[in-house]
Amino acid sequence: MVGCHDWVYDHNVFESSIMSTFNSPPCSSVNDPDWIFGTYITKVEMPEMVFWLGMMIGNTLFGWVADNYGPNATIIGVSGALSLFAVFIGFTTSLVSYACLSFLIGFCALTASTVSQAVLSEAVPAKNRRVIVLTKVAAIRS
Fold this sequence. Notes:
single chain, mainly alpha, two-stranded antiparallel ribbon, 5 helices
């Protein structure tokens, strides 16, 4: 860090990254609001909002897909897509591409958990179902 004016980035591997693009001065905050969607939303809040929007839409859509095409195919497809999007987000260099990939990760993330929990609850006998499902939920939450 040079004074309190600028960060110093190592550009040997990547020419730019999302952090160097934002390049918020060390003495200020990345929470400085920008005018986005007709309201003041910070650069940190916007991708998070898009992530939750993707989660709402994706869980609704993939719930229908799991009902009509089977939960196993849905879990495999969503998990594969989630893995790809998670790798791609590591190489993004702009706020727009970061927000788009956040949307796609949100689109897939909750579905993998929800559909796998439904498959798990259907796979175990009724007398053990409560313990198994609650164990899975507790493992995810901890």
